Amino acid sequence: MTDTKDLIQPDRGQDATAIHLVNKDGFEDFAKTLSAGQRASLAAQKFDGSGYQVGIVPDGDGFFAVGGVANPESLSSWCLAALAEALPGGTYRLAGERQAGVAMFGWMTAQYRFTRYRAEDKPAGPRVLLTGEIARMEALRAEAEAEMKVRDLVNTPAEDMGPAALEAECEKLAKAHGAQLKVTRGDTLEQEYPMVHAVGRAAARHHAPRIMHLTWGDEGDPVLAIVGKGVCFDSGGLDIKPGSGMRLMKKDMGGAAHAIALAGLVMGAQLKVRLHLLVPAVENAISGSAFRPGDVLASRKGLTVEIHNTDAEGRLILGDALTRASEEEPDLIVDFATLTGAARVAVGPDFAAMMARRDDTAEAFLAAGKENDDAPWRLPLPDSYREWLSSDIADLANAHQNAFAGASVAGLFLDRFVAEGLDWVHFDTFAWRPSAKPGRAKGGGACGLRASWHALRKRYGG
């Protein structure tokens, strides 16, 4: 993971290069404060104050930087991200005793690099931003590190990020925060979590299925359950995906990555909760032992599930995990999954599709996301569509046979495994950015993580 301690530091009067922030409306007045040579320099760079523009202006023996933003008086998470990507390595502070606020997040995430398999040819060196907002700096550092954790896990290929590697991540998390971790595998998994076992049983031995259950916090505090889909690679099973659809399936454990990162934030901030993190981890592989279309699977809840499509496997492993989470009678369950292509058709890659049982909980998550530049988009859970999951021989089917409302129908399947009356929020997230934007590199990425974190922080304190 990129070391964020090199990217944001307390301002103690160190030498630093100034950054001026302007927009198109204010650029003409700003330019009047510059020398003719400095104005010419910006003109040569075609700088006019448009968003995400970066200008470097000579100033004596050094220089100062100019960044184009939409509103210099109200910075978003991404206002400084283009500067952090483009400026030379060095130390910077905002001019005029300005503070970066939430834009520190984008300053850090803009400098993320995934170098596990290939180092950068010419590292630019860290761009360090100085700030007087020490408490906020540390809070945003934790958020940026959680974002980078998601990126690292999702970017890692499946051979190196299989179920055992996800288990190792949970072990590392438990050790860092003094939590307890139970891992269920083998015959016990088949007995206690039969759908997790069925989905993962075709994988090679070193990618054998398992479920991780981490617990932390005082038993008297409200129970918060966080669940993440950990399909470490999804071939589609016997209903095999085409090659183009399989290319990015290393990211199908993106829900687990979100859940692990969010649990780290919860424990790091010492929220007053009894945390249960559940990560079912499998590879949906193809072999003679693969589960088949037409099979009927048992589940932890006791419901039987007819398999209409082996490529609708994520909801199966989540069903068992959500059942286990429900057994704790939690105050809230939040789950993350790269669950359906239908969600991407509906909202694209930049929004997490969110479903919730309770309107007030949904509104809290939507508001937290909007306030922190990570707004999800709510989709419905319509009772009228439940009949589409009916089966002639089992309690329900795992996939419906029409092309309608795929994300909502998948949510309705999960709803059958969440105990009646519980507060539950489901995120169908993409966990991938198909193209780069300032502060948001192409590749693995979190979507819905900050919305969830700020909603939980407001709900439980910390």
UniProtKB/TrEMBL annotation:
GO terms for biological process: proteolysis. PROSITE patterns: CYTOSOL_AP (PS00631). CDD domains: Peptidase_M17. The keyword Manganese applies. Keywords: Aminopeptidase, Hydrolase, Manganese, Protease. The keyword Manganese applies. Transmembrane segments: none annotated. InterPro entries: Leucine_aapep/pepB, Macro_dom-like, Peptidase_M17_C, Peptidase_M17_N_1. GO terms for cellular component: cytoplasm. GO terms for molecular function: manganese ion binding; metalloaminopeptidase activity. Residues 309-316 form the Cytosol aminopeptidase domain. SUPFAM superfamilies: Zn-dependent exopeptidases. Belongs to the peptidase M17 family. This is Cytosol aminopeptidase. It comes from Erythrobacter litoralis.
